[in-house]
Amino acid sequence: MNTSINIFDTTLRDGTQGEKVAFSAEDKLRIAQQLDAFGIDYIEGGWPGSNPRDMEFFELAAEASFDHARIVAFGSTCRAGNEPNEDRNLQLLVEAETPAVSIFGKSWLLHVEKALQITAEQNLGIIRDSVRFLKNHNKEVIYDAEHFFDGYKEDPDYAVATLKAAEEAGADTVVLCDTNGGTLPGQVSEIVSEVLKQVNIPVGIHAHNDCELGVANAMAAVQSGCTHVQGTINGYGERCGNTNLCSLIPNLQIKQDYQCIPDQHLEELTALSRFISEVANLTPDIRQPYVGRSAFAHKGGIHVSAVMKNEETYEHIQPGRIGNSRRVLVSDLSGRSNISYKAEQLGIELDKYSDNVSEIVRELKDLENKGYQFEAAEASFELLVKKMTGVWEEFFELEGFRIIVEKNVSGSSRTEATLRIKVNDQVEHCAAEGNGPVHALDKALRKALRKFYPEISNMHLNDYKVRVLNEKDGTGADVRVLIDSAEHGQSWGTVGVSHNIIDASWQALTDSFSYFLAQEQKNLQPKEAI
Amino acid sequence: MNTSINIFDTTLRDGTQGEKVAFSAEDKLRIAQQLDAFGIDYIEGGWPGSNPRDMEFFELAAEASFDHARIVAFGSTCRAGNEPNEDRNLQLLVEAETPAVSIFGKSWLLHVEKALQITAEQNLGIIRDSVRFLKNHNKEVIYDAEHFFDGYKEDPDYAVATLKAAEEAGADTVVLCDTNGGTLPGQVSEIVSEVLKQVNIPVGIHAHNDCELGVANAMAAVQSGCTHVQGTINGYGERCGNTNLCSLIPNLQIKQDYQCIPDQHLEELTALSRFISEVANLTPDIRQPYVGRSAFAHKGGIHVSAVMKNEETYEHIQPGRIGNSRRVLVSDLSGRSNISYKAEQLGIELDKYSDNVSEIVRELKDLENKGYQFEAAEASFELLVKKMTGVWEEFFELEGFRIIVEKNVSGSSRTEATLRIKVNDQVEHCAAEGNGPVHALDKALRKALRKFYPEISNMHLNDYKVRVLNEKDGTGADVRVLIDSAEHGQSWGTVGVSHNIIDASWQALTDSFSYFLAQEQKNLQPKEAI
Which of B17, B186, B415 sits opposite A223 (nearest CB)? Predict the structure, then answer.
């Protein structure tokens, strides 16, 4: 039988101590509901009283219903000198009306004596009194031993005595915290094993990622007998973050014999990760293990041809198990197989033009060498292949454009673009002003195209990136422009390279519009056929 | 005595297999020189023959000199059926003219029989022949055992036999590769220990991060006796990346008794990490352990006050040891000390210029909020402070400029800038053509200034960078331009921000020229005084 591990999520508390991570009370509720549906056991929602947002969350949570998870309020043991029932912090923990609470106390003797300026025995009394007070209010109590590993290294007996104080007072779980994130897996294993000989209630681990070992440390603790793991989705958290549950859960449940969440929810992992980065308004990390966009992306030519033969060769698990999927990237590292696979996905049968495949590969490699990057510009890639294989018809022709940027003594500058295009022998001549030269050109081209292709109004530009390629050449250098465009949730990328930023932008812009129009045309075909 | 570990960097080879990571041959050379100066032992530069860029790098590297590092060319063992001296891949490895080569071969019996369709014994022959061929050409040979851990799990005897084949043929090091990144630290320890009983040459580890264990697995291998570690700066690499050397090196050298690089270079780690993400044009990960901007950033109120009392409380090491620094993410007061600190670092005593330091601070913070970034633009920062405090005189005034970009049916575009500036009531009107609008403007401004300040010919632009700030606004977004200029080895950075790339470039350009002229003036003063 698999060992069951309690998963304690602190995305809403320790997660928000990470730089740039912030959630409204409503955000927190939406996240808590997703975590509950996913099968997380404990959801730490915040520190009631530390800020109004956390208070509000606990009010919302008290009215919501959760199928599986227990909501947890976080706080500290009572202040030195306070009676627990007079301690505002403990009172607020009770008032949060959660089934469980987590409270942290000191394990490091140095801090007890220096920071709190109380005796070792007084600190044990504070821990006992605080836990007992909360148990008397019928809470499940999770005791977080702050700085446990640092304290243990200095005085193991005292560090363990703090855990025993919590245990005696009725704590349900004690959690060993590597608060500074500086402990290594070998030390975690050794210390957890020692602690388990002396403590008779479940022991948990709370690790940070300051040595890039947040996941490894939690795994070492579990291997040594911890049955409760604290962490966050995407590893968000103070400084370098906390144990990343998106990696920990599959490591324990797919690769080892532990049970964290119901098996059938594993394939929701990727969606959960992206949902939470979306709510936090943080760009998802493409390289993130298991759930990142690149986690099953293959770029090297040899890897691709091998994966096409047998997926086990370069994939440690099937991407679908955690809801992710395989991608093949096209770049100058790619051999024939990348290009064939990619073309196949795009519905282009290269073998039909079999003499052409090597030529296409050569041409793409040449372009990449000039600075074109097709990984993020799949639409340009598709257009290029279609042009090379002769299955492409242009939607418009450029007759010419002129951009004027003027600045005078008054300081502000004015930008104007004029443009002439031809569609089926009909010439359209347009002008537009913009924020800058590319913006003006974009507006003029839209204006001109709209006359022939009114559907162009449905698409918009999402993202515009400029990268100077050979920077040493200063303002005379080559530039690469990447444009990301979208229509109703569908998005596509295009690329242009030139020593002139306007030319590079023009290439990426026209590819973007052309790709969109080709897609629209494809969608129309069935209707015409009727 | 500390155990010495050989660090093998593959940022330029496996790193570029990561999505969005691409370097020109010149980029690669600049990176290799930085890695060498940092104290890396081996620098794997690419796969000669796989693409033109890698070829070009080895040509550049052959002409450059490296103080410490050995440059390594990467490739595979020879193809089944080929004699080594007829194998194009092996020939190119020799022609790359590097002191060392790394070649990979198969360890997994399944792949030998299924993918290569040769016998187990034939595969051992290929390994032996390939290694021997390279040794006969006086190369140091590092043999990479691809899929070693997966192969070992299936057939340990055969996996080890492939290593012994390489050893017999004279390989200098064998490297155990966790190619798919699916192996856990416990398995790594166990397998490395077994291998070391049977192999008598140095053994290395090449780990990937697919389980977020790239660093932990390399550490487990070192703990079990490996003395050679492969990895990349910032963990760039195929899929989820490779062992991150920016975490591994301090973990081994600061927290354990291993020697990876000379101690005095450890404090260059943060700068090295940021340099490489800059060259790759990838936004640095703020949460990255050790070197990230948030790695020593304190947000929680309790943490901040504690850290201010005693840094050990929430910092696992002193940030200065690896060249990073502490940040406090709270109040406006901290903003004030940041800016005073920055000014002080630049040698500007703010209280000397104005009693109203707070006003300067407010204005600078406002600008930073709009996207100005003064870390890489200390010349603009200095100019701004001087302008605000009234100790600045302009060298020229802009009367106006006009830029015209024209493109017609023939395809190529033409860019022209005209410009009027005034110096001491004398107006200069100039025109110039350029590669793009900024290049043309730069040339026209130089032309005009040269008449009054001939010394302007001594300075040149080193580097020109564009970053779109609010990417979601597409081509109408704000952009930041950073310019790096130099004269006789002295360099300085300037910045401009605007929704118009021309305006932003103009700001950075004029700051750059003005700063240069002010420096020249300062240098002249002593002579005039004589």
Answer: B186
- H runs (alpha helix) in B114-237: 120-136, 148-154, 156-168, 185-198, 214-223
**How long, in residues, is chain B?**
530
Structure-model confidence comparison of residues A476 and B320, the more confident one: B320
Contact B111 A313 (CB under 8 A): yes
What pLDDT score does B359 carry? 76
Over residues A208-239, the pLDDT tens digits come to 999 999 999 999 999 999 999 999 999 999 99
Task: Tell me the β-bridge partners of A498.
Answer: A479
Q: Which of B249, B373, B375 is nearest to B317 (CA)?
A: B249
Residue with tokens 């000014």: B343
Distance (Å, rounded) from C-alpha B415 to C-alpha B417? 7
Relative to beta strand A297-298, strand A258-259 is unpaired
Tokens of A68: 């599986």
Q: What angle do CA A211, B322, A180 make, to 5 degrees?
A: 35
ipTM: 0.74
- What is the set of domains in chain B, with CATH numbers? 6-261 (3.20.20.70), 397-520 (3.30.160.270)
**What three-state secondary structure class fits B417?**
strand
Question: B17-73, pLDDT tens digit by residue?
Answer: 888 888 888 889 989 999 999 999 999 999 997 777 788 899 999 999 999 999 999
- Lowest mean per-residue pLDDT among A351-355, B365-369, B499-503: A351-355
Report how far residue B301's alpha carbon sits from residue B305's, in angstroms, rounded to the nearest whole number.
6
- How far apart are the two ends of chain A, measured CA to CA in Å? 59
Locate B117 and state its tokens. 């369709």
Cβ count within 10 A of residue B518: 17
B22 and A331 Cβ atoms separated by less than 8 Å: yes
Per the CB < 8 Å rule, is B289 touching A182?
A: no
Q: Which of A209, A238, A500 sits opposite B415 (nearest CB)?
A: A500
State yes or no: pLDDT of A267 exceeds 70: yes
**How high is the pLDDT of residue A526?**
45
Alpha-carbon distance of B350 to B356, in angstroms, equals 9
**B104: contact with A, CB 8 A cutoff:** no
- For helices A501-529 and A378-388, give the axis angle rounded to 10 degrees: 70
Structure tokens at B297: 């950033």
Q: In a mutagenesis test of the B interface, which of A471, A481, A498 is the best target, namely the one with the most B β-carbons within 10 Å?
A: A471
Residues in chain A: 530
**pLDDT over 90 for what percent of chain A?**
60
Residue B239 touches chain A, beta carbons under 8 Å: yes
- Of the candidates B377, B375, B348, B363, the one whose C-alpha atom is nearest the C-alpha of residue B504 is B377
Nearest to A239 among B111, B285, B297 (CB): B297
Q: What angle (nearest 5°) sits at the alpha carbon of residue A228, between those of residues A104 and A215?
A: 95
Token pair, residue A110, equals: 């140095």
Contact, B7 vs B142, CB < 8 A?
A: no
